[in-house]
Write a structure and sequence with these properties.
- 71% of the residues lie in helices and 0% in strands.
- By secondary structure, it is mainly alpha-helical.
- The longest helix is centred in the middle third of the chain and has 35 residues, at 98-132.
- It is globular, with a radius of gyration of 20 Å.
- The chain starts with a helix and ends with a helix.
């Protein structure tokens, strides 16, 4: 491979990874903060709570995804492959204890079963939820939601048989646009209330946990939504390689996610009533319909990415 081809190949791998690997975690801003403050166990929207929850989200992403998966676990590859079964083969090959090997094997199979189960139910649930978002554009789409969902699922699984590379190259540009929009919306909101950036300080998370133990416990159940799909970085390592995934994460995905979450937090500081849908209320009125369409595309892509790799 020539030096001129190397950057082109790397760029293709990065775009492919953005389209396949990061769809799940990349669409979490649609609901993570909303569920924290307006879910089944709503938290009062105060400045301290907003900063505390934002700090929890930020440090959860940094510790569980950036540190755990990107920096540590991705080192434990099995000849370049990642995922539960690859890790199982790696660990069992390092132990001479038969009982321990059997236990590790059982845990590995259980983890793989969970992954396959998730990959089976997620496309149907997520695609249906995404297509239902079209009703926001016009209620006349209501009668077409189920037929469109079936058509989309059929088309996606037909494309997937052609391989991960094609899927990534088709969906990569869409997801790049999605993450760009996340960042732009977040920056515009943060500019109005820059004090929200104080939540980068973990002290706010600690203070929230200490001051409201029960509320913070409930909040953690929603905060974890911000890192759903983080395991895909390790699972999909064999398809795209460590470096392209790490480059995409630190170069685009992580900044876009953090900026958008903090943008939603800035909006809540300015208008607590925006808790009903802090993501969409970041956008100006004229941009709502295009944003709904883009969000629908992004969630459709996210819902099928895991199934494409099983």
């Amino acid at each position: 491979m020539s030096t001129t081809d190397s950057p082109r190949k790397l760029g293709g791998l990065v775009i492919g990874a953005i389209g396949v690997v990061f769809g799940d975690i990349g669409t979490s801003p649609l609901y993570a903060l909303k569920e924290t403050f307006a879910g089944h166990h709503p938290i009062p929207v105060t400045d301290a709570a907003v900063l505390g929850v934002l700090s929890l989200i930020f440090w959860t992403i940094m510790i569980l995804v950036s540190l755990k998966y990107v920096i540590i676990i991705m080192r434990a590859d099995n000849r370049g492959e990642g995922g539960s079964l690859a890790l199982l083969a790696l660990v069992t090959g390092m132990t001479n204890n038969s009982r321990l090997s059997h236990l590790v094997a059982l845990l590995g199979v259980f983890a793989a079963a969970l992954f396959y189960g998730d990959s089976m139910i997620t496309p149907a649930i997520s695609v249906l939820s995404a297509v239902e978002g079209l009703e926001v554009v016009t209620p006349r789409f209501a009668g077409f939601v189920l037929p469109i969902t079936i058509a989309v699922l059929t088309a996606l699984f037909a494309i997937q048989k052609r391989g991960t590379g094609l899927v990534g190259m088709l969906f990569g540009p869409v997801m790049c646009t999605w993450f760009g929009v996340l960042a732009v919306l977040g920056v515009l909101s943060i500019a109005q209330r820059p004090e929200v950036m104080a939540a980068l300080n973990p002290v706010y998370a600690a203070q929230f946990l200490a001051a409201h133990p029960w509320l913070s416990f409930l909040a953690l159940g929603a905060v974890v939504l911000a890192v759903t799909g983080g395991e895909a970085l390790y699972t999909d390592m064999g398809h795209f390689g460590k470096f392209p995934i790490r480059l995409a994460w630190f170069g685009l995905i992580l900044p876009a996610l953090v900026i958008n979450y903090f943008g939603q937090g800035a909006l809540l500081l300015a208008d607590p009533a925006a808790v009903q849908n802090p993501f969409y209320l970041l956008a100006p009125t004229w941009a709502l319909i295009p944003l709904v369409v883009l969000a629908t595309l992004a969630t459709v892509i996210a819902s099928q990415a895991g199934a494409a790799l099983t």
